[in-house]
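Q: What residues go here?
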């Protein structure tokens, strides 16, 4: 089976949506396997911009089957709203499968997310406020509802009753409004007809695809540094965005992932709180934010901006088994006289060869920088690698050398066409 996994190598928003859409025309199946509508994947096709949150970015290819797999947390109301929004934008065919094992994210998860963040005050995580953490918590606590419960009224009602018995106590303790089972059931009944036809055993379906040697593309959400276990804990999301989590989140064997395309921006961004060693607080940071339109796809929050961090990228390459890199938004760096790149971290004046594992250690990190020369040309219409300015090529090649992995593609603009191919993947 020919597969390709796309993984964000930083703190999310690296351009996974664009690359997934790019490869979707060669795929038979596109799969999202973790996260929920905390993700915001922007895709520009023929000058038109689309924002996807739950739907896989293969949705614009009518012949591609788009799977929302087992490890996702799915807000049924947000999903129907997203489908309706795309219909209004002219998308007519929804070739979708929704896992019966995927967790169902319900309004009380959103309320708990907001209440917790408010209570944490200065220590808040800066979540997207979509209820993602509380939904995954319920999954682990075995209190969660799953999308398959929508297929069985009795099970749906009894699972919801059990969950609300516990969740409402928590909400009341927070001084928030409790939820009524009847209200949630009523709301669910309104959206169920739109979702039930798509709900199935997607892991069985995907295993069949495997037997039939189909081409399957796995679209990551979030970024490796937001991994619940390996990221900048506690300032992380509540699932693992690593490609190594794909097997368990889809019901496929370990060997399912042939190639992992790590997606990285030519600089770094993050939204929400938490460590960010190369963060810029100056005019250059503002310039990059404006030129790169670095505002959240979902929440519209301004993204924090910083220089490229090779310490992060080397670490992520190792923990995820990245085989190729897609370098995104290189056009945004055009016009700068000089570009800094962090090559490693020092703590107490000594170079370290490990990734800090807690916030106190991150607070001691001093990034070590090299300065590379910039380029003045607008590269957003360059189609061939050789036509890039010398210093832009040097930037790409320095990254390649430092990571020891090939930069297979370079993106110079949001549109599908603004993509320079150096090595063909997923042929
Ligand atoms: P994702 O969450 O990883 O899918 O990334 P987002 O879509 O949230 O954020 C990436 C943003 O960069 C989107 O607005 C894209 O349209 C845009 N984008 C992607 N690639 C490029 C590029 O090469 N150049 C520029 N200027 N914008 C890009
Ligand atoms: P895509 O797929 C960027 C961040 C939030 C917050 C932390 C926890 O578009 O790259 P959560 O709501 O998940 O509990 O928030 O994770 N975060 C993202 N940042 N891109 C994303 O997704 C993100 N999904 C979550 O900002 O810091
Ligand atoms: Mg995004």
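A:
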């Amino acid at each position: 089976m020919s597969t390709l996994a796309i993984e964000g190598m930083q703190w999310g928003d690296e351009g996974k949506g664009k690359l997934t859409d790019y490869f979707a025309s060669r795929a038979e199946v596109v799969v999202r396997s973790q996260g929920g509508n905390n993700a915001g994947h922007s895709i520009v096709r023929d000058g038109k911009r689309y924002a996807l949150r739950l739907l896989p970015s293969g949705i614009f290819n009518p012949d591609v089957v788009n799977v929302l797999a087992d490890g996702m947390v799915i807000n049924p109301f947000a999903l129907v709203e997203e489908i309706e929004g795309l219909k209004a934008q002219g998308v007519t065919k929804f070739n979708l499968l929704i896992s019966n094992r995927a967790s169902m994210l319900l309004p009380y998860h959103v309320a708990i997310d907001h209440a917790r963040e408010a209570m944490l005050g200065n220590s808040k995580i800066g979540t997207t406020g979509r209820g993602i953490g509380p939904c995954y918590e319920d999954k682990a606590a075995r209190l969660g509802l799953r999308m398959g419960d929508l297929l069985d009224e009795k099970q749906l009602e009894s699972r919801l009753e059990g969950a609300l018995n516990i969740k409402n106590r928590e909400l009341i303790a927070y001084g928030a409004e409790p939820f009524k089972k009847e209200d949630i059931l009523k709301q669910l009944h309104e959206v169920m007809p739109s979702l039930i036809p798509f709900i199935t055993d997607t892991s069985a379906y995907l295993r069949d695809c495997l037997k039939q040697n189909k081409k399957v593309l796995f679209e990551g959400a979030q970024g490796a540094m937001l991994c619940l276990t390996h990221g900048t804990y506690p300032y992380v999301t509540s699932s693992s965005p690593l490609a190594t989590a794909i097997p368990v989140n889809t019901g496929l064997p370990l060997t399912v992932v042939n190639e992992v395309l790590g997606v990285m921006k030519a600089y770094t961004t993050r939204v929400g709180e938490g460590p960010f060693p190369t963060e810029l607080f100056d005019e250059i940071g503002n310039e990059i934010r404006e030129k790169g339109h670095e505002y959240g796809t979902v929440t519209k929050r301004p993204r924090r901006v910083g220089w490229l961090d090779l310490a992060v990228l080397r670490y992520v390459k190792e923990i995820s088994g990245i085989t190729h890199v897609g370098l995104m938004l290189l056009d945004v760096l055009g016009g700068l006289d000089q570009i800094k790149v962090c090559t490693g971290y020092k703590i107490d004046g000594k170079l370290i060869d490990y990734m800090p594992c807690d916030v106190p250690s991150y607070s001691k990190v001093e990034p070590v920088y090299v300065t590379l020369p910039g380029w003045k040309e607008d590269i957003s219409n360059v189609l061939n690698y050789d036509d890039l300015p010398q210093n832009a090529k040097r930037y790409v090649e320095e990254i390649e050398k430092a990571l020891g992995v090939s930069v297979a593609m370079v993106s110079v603009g949001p549109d599908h066409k603004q993509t320079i191919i150096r090595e063909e993947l997923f042929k």
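A: Context that may help when evaluating the design: The domain at 2-100+201-259 is CATH 3.40.440.10 (Adenylosuccinate Synthetase; Chain A, domain 1). Residues 348 and 364 are 7 Å apart (CA to CA).
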